Amino acid sequence: VTNWTYGDRRVRFRIPVGVAYGSDVNKVRDALLAVARENRHTLKEPAPGVFLDQFGDSSIDFKLMVWSSEMSARPSRYRSDLNFAIAEKFREAGIAFPFPQRDVHIRDGVIKLEKVTKNEMAERSEA
Predict the structure, then answer these.
(1) pTM for the whole structure
(2) Number of compact structural domains in the chain
């Protein structure tokens, strides 16, 4: 067996990122590429890439692919730095992270809704 990568310190990192439905996917791609390019440990070649991976239950899922030769010994640190930068860049760009959600459809009948205050809710749970 020959390990062709033994002398090569370059390591590829895959950073999964989910965004809320309704997000501008081009804006997401541009923000992720900007984060990759702004990090001093990211290699210019091979160039960073962004892939729209799938449409999940509650999110549009992307993968940011980056290469680094300096962070192979500290992969958790590099991923963390990228994730902090992604959170900040998304906040600046108005890109929302998703949260799990479900839509309930009532086929027949009527459901009576009543407004309950926090105090009333607490009283009911104590009873």
Answers:
(1) 0.76
(2) 1
